[in-house]
Amino acid sequence: MIKYKDIIGIGFGPANISLAITIEEKAPEMDVLFLESNQDIVWHPDAQFAGTDIQNHPLRDLVTPRNPKSHYSFTNFLKETGRLFKHLNLPLTYPLRKEYAQYIKWVGGHFYNKVQYNKRVINIDIVCENNIHKGYKVTTDDGRNYFSKAIVIAPGRTPYIPSVLEKASSKRIIHFNKLISTLSSLENEGNTPKNIAVIGGSQSAVEIILDLRNRYKNCTLHGITRSFGYRQKDASPFMGEVYFPEHCNFYFDANKKGKEELDRDLLFTNYSAADKDVVDSLYVQIYEESITENQRVFVVTNREIMQAEEINNRLKLTLINRYSNQIEELDFDLVIAATGFRNIGIDENQERVPPILDRISEHLDLDELGCIVIHRDYNLRTLSTIAENRPIMLNGLCEKSHGMGDAGSLSLVSLRSEIILNHVISKLQQGDPVSLPNRIELYS
Ligand SMILES: Cc1cc2nc3c(=O)[nH]c(=O)nc-3n(C[C@H](O)[C@H](O)[C@H](O)COP(=O)(O)OP(=O)(O)OC[C@H]3O[C@@H](n4cnc5c(N)ncnc54)[C@H](O)[C@@H]3O)c2cc1C
Questions:
Q1: Which of 40, 97, 273, 402 is the least buried, fewest Cβ under 10 Å from its Cβ?
Q2: 378 contacts 393 by C-beta, under 8 angstroms
Q3: What is the ipTM of this complex?
Q4: Is the CB of 13 within 6 Å of ligand 1?
């Protein structure tokens, strides 16, 4: 007889680590397992650039907005590691990303007996007994199967590389989520890049240029963006309310047109823009290079990439100036796409169904465009082949439905995990006489 876990969590990044805390604090009797493809907890390891800071208020951590008294808060991490006073004395507005990555790892480490590492989930199937949907079979890349009544999927978003670059099928084009590991392989092979392009106008694009300039003293760098220049993030506190829980309800209830307008209005609070400190720093560094006739960082603006092709171990980019229509060719030995991640949708930079849901998508009630539909509680809209008491939850891939305040930041992960757990418990209680706690209270 199959023994089903109550929940299998897929991925053990911040979203599902936050869920693990909520389960421990609210429903410790639940039988849960998390499957993580990495060999350890590492928060965006390829984007841990020296000196960079986090983008969220540190108290909007994995638990504080839900339970400020928790053991797992960032403040308690500092206390437990003996750093509280030193940290509070730092002349920084936001903590270093490296320290926050340590915090996330510290929290996740408490759940070692609930996580299996080196387990990449490659498939999710439904399991039926006597034609009744009983649960899910989750298969990992080592061929093992795991069974559960509910699944919470939190694999992070799919990296996006524009198709004009992807078509070149070149190893010289990488997404920035592979940057540090690619650089160390190239260094080990004795192929340290000498001429690099960084595509995009995001926070990451600017951080990468600053990092590479420092890392490789003999390297020429071109930042290529279709904008007029690197834009500063919209840091107005009024706009910052996008990271309030109320905004998720507001956004969720908006119609399609309203959502599109809100996305346009809020875009620069998080995307296609960078913080003032890094923009200023880059500008000053380029200026200093130029007045000492030693310029090696160039920002190429208003340009669209028309073509990319690998010729003689070089990557040639053909660019067009969006306003003068002038065409130019530049070649590089490495092109880094700092072009973000895919949202749900039909545009070029979107995906209808995240790859991890491919096999199970025949049981999902997709919309008229073939995209997944996510309900307010983060459960997927499913067909009748999925029993109501066997929910599939998405933890984090919800920008299209819940807005960028929910999906694009750590700010709301703790509250989201509570909604997810609440939903799962209420559904599991409908079906089986399992000894689960009463419906837990939602934040108001
Ligand atoms: C470079 C970068 C910096 C960011 N900085 C901030 C910030 O400072 N502040 C902020 O609020 N937000 C930030 N964000 C946005 C967001 O908060 C983070 O992306 C956050 O890490 C999302 O957490 P997650 O758990 O949903 O996804 P992830 O952090 O991507 O974690 C997903 C986990 O799932 C695992 N996984 C994936 N596929 C599988 C599979 N098939 N099987 C098993 N495991 C799998 C991965 O290995 C990973 O451990 C940043 C995003 C990026 C890309």
A1: 40
A2: yes
A3: 0.99
A4: yes
